[in-house]
Structure formats: structure tokens, C-alpha cells
Write a structure and sequence with these properties.
Layout (H helix, E strand, L loop, with lengths): L8 E5 L12 H23 L4 H13 L20 E7 L4 E8 L5 H11 L4 E3 H10 L7 H4 L2 H8 L22 E6 L5 E7 L20 E3 L4 E7 L1 H6 L2 H12 L3 H16 L3 E7 L4 E2 L6 E8 L4 E6 L2
Parallel strand pairs: 3-4
Antiparallel strand pairs: 1-5, 1-11, 2-3, 2-6, 5-6, 7-8, 8-9, 9-10, 11-12
Helix pairs in contact: 1-2, 2-3, 8-9
This protein binds aspartic acid.
Length: 314
């Protein structure tokens, strides 16, 4: 194999709201693991062939968006109005460029639209009709609502549709599936990128935007520190500015990646009641995937031989 100019590394997640441990059947577990593996392999292969961290994270996230198992793209959860409103963001750590979309529907791969906003517009975040207009201008094909219909997610919404609740899967008693998706990577040039995509939270209010498309909250990348993609109760992630906080602990306090991520997920987030987790990579290709929930669908691989694919705590 050709010598790599730099260590490459990638991590992906499929959400911190996993099925309760007792409810996971071997068949379901195998399905989740297969989807995670496919996304991880595609991203890793892209890095190996010299593609950028942005390419690799976009590709890995697109694969998870195309699966109904995860709460993004095709598998997005239902809002209180019975619709789908998707959010996504992508950021690169070299020039700190970023693109994000919020409250969009009908777009098969929101992460690609976020990337187009980063690369083909002068803006960072476009929402609702404005984002849809931009997508149409670029020739995006719109999918019918049926494409996003999933019986399981529909039932998940039925259980709380007439209440004021909106929720993550792990706050439910019932067998549900859930999971924002994300990827972080370090490429052969030592550049970092982070990508995150979500349908948000079941029964969320019309117009609610979570942490995922907000740069610094659910998604952040900076070559000087790290790239981070989050999953969990968005309202808390916004208030704690989670992704940027990990970066700040590294930049201003000199903490190593793992320590910085641990501090945010296990100390700062629980203090305000936030549950969830994150995946992160630094410019040396070090990876970490902490979470304070029962599980987090996650996988990681680097060119030093590290490989991990797990759902619950090890
Ligand atoms: N953070 C997402 C949101 O609040 C939900 C998730 O991570 O699954 O929209």
C-alpha cells in the first residue's frame, strides 16, 4: 500500500438515542451495524484515495441519510404538524468555511445542500423557503413526502402527537428508533471536517431548529483544535455551545481532545440536564466518541489500525 502523507481518521455516529438495550434484537442490531459499517467504509476509502475530509464526511453522512434506520434524510422523524423539517451543517477546519440548512423538506441529502451553501453561496445558514429556493436554483430534485414516510416513525409520532412533548428516543419507554447522523474526519493533508444531519426531534414544533445546523453548537471544525459532530437534546446543546466548547477547552486551556470532549459530555452537559454525545477528531488523527446516554450508534477507523463499531457502552 502506498505510504500515506499523514495519518487519516474518521468517526461517524447515528445518534445518541438508541433502542433500550433489552429491546434490541440481534436482527436489528445487525442492520444498524451494517449501515454504520457501510458509511464508515465509504468515508475511510475516500480518505485513503486522497479525497478531502469534507468529501469523506459528506459521503459518510449521505449514506446514513439514505437509510431509514437513522433520523436524517429518508428516516427523518415527524414534526408536530406531521411533516418533516430537516437540518444539516458541514464545516471545514482549514479556512473555517461552513454551510448549513434548517427547516427544509423534500431534499434527499440535506448535507449536500449544506455543502453547496458553503461552496456556492456567500452565506453560512439558509432556512426554510430561502434554502428551498437555493436548492431549486441549483437543480435539486424534490422528493415526495412518501419518500420520507416511515411507518415506525409515524407510530413514534402518534404516541405523543397531542401532547406538548418532543423527544429523543431514549426518553421513551417504548421501542423506537432515532438518530441524528454525523461524521468527522482528518484527511491526508491534515485537514479536518465535520458534518451533521438530522430530522430533529419527534413532535417538535413547527419552525423549531436544533443544534445540528448551528455552527459551534452541534457541528464545528478547526484545524487548530478539532472537528466535532454532536447528537442529543438540541436545546441543551445550543445553550452549552457544545462543539465549540470542546474546541475552546483545547485552544484556551490546552486540554487534549479526549479530555476536552469528556469534560463537556460528562461534566458540563449533565450540569444543565443535557443528554447525548459527540464524535471528535483532532489534527493528529486522534478520535474520541463520548456520550452520557445508554448508547450511541458509532464507528471509527484510522490508518494506525484502530477500528471500533459499537452501540452501547463497551
Ligand atoms: N440534536 C438533534 C436535535 O436536537 C437531535 C439528535 O441528536 O438526534 O435536533
Amino acid at each position: 500500500m502506498a505510504q500515506l502523507s499523514n495519518k487519516i481518521a474518521i468517526a461517524i455516529h447515528g445518534g445518541a438515542g438508541t433502542l433500550k438495550k433489552g429491546m434490541m434484537t440481534p436482527v436489528k442490531e445487525a442492520e444498524y451495524k451494517k449501515a454504520l459499517q457501510e458509511s464508515l467504509d465509504a468515508g475511510y476509502k475516500a480518505l485513503l484515495s486522497g479525497k478531502s475530509a469534507v468529501d469523506a464526511t459528506e459521503l459518510a453522512v449521505r449514506i446514513l441519510e439514505d437509510s431509514t434506520l437513522f433520523n436524517a434524510g429518508k428516516g427523518s422523524v415527524f414534526t408536530a404538524g406531521g411533516t418533516h423539517e430537516m437540518d444539516a451543517a458541514i464545516m471545514e477546519g482549514d479556512h473555517l468555511k461552513a454551510g448549513a440548512v434548517a427547516l427544509i423538506n423534500g431534499i434527499k441529502n440535506p448535507i449536500s445542500l449544506a455543502r453547496d451553501i458553503m461552496e456556492r453561496s456567500d452565506h453560512v445558514l439558509l432556512a426554510a423557503e430561502g434554502a428551498m429556493e437555493f436548492a431549486k436554483k441549483l437543480g435539486y430534485e424534490l422528493k415526495d413526502p412518501e419518500y420520507f414516510y416511515d411507518e415506525f416513525r409515524y407510530q413514534q409520532w402518534q404516541e405523543i402527537r397531542d401532547t406538548d412533548q418532543f423527544q429523543l428516543d431514549h426518553s421513551l419507554k417504548k421501542d423506537t428508533k432515532f438518530g441524528t447522523v454525523g461524521a468527522v474526519a482528518c484527511d491526508q493533508q491534515g485537514n479536518l471536517a465535520a458534518a451533521t444531519s438530522t430530522g430533529g426531534m419527534t413532535n417538535k414544533r413547527y419552525g423549531r431548529i436544533g443544534d445540528s445546523p448551528l455552527i459551534g453548537c452541534g457541528n464545528y471544525a478547526n484545524n487548530a483544535t478539532c472537528a466535532v459532530s454532536c447528537t442529543g437534546s438540541g436545546e441543551y446543546f445550543i445553550r452549552a455551545v457544545v462543539a465549540y466548547d470542546v474546541s475552546c477547552l483545547m485552544e484556551y486551556k490546552g486540554l487534549a481532545l479526549e479530555k476536552a470532549a469528556f469534560e463537556v459530555v460528562h461534566n458540563r452537559m449533565p450540569r444543565i440536564g443535557g443528554d447525548g454525545g459527540l464524535i471528535a477528531v483532532d489534527r493528529h488523527g486522534m478520535l474520541t466518541m463520548p456520550f452520557n446516554t445508554e448508547g450511541m450508534y458509532r464507528a471509527a477507523r484510522d490508518s494506525d489500525g484502530l477500528f471500533q463499531l459499537s452501540i452501547y457502552k463497551d
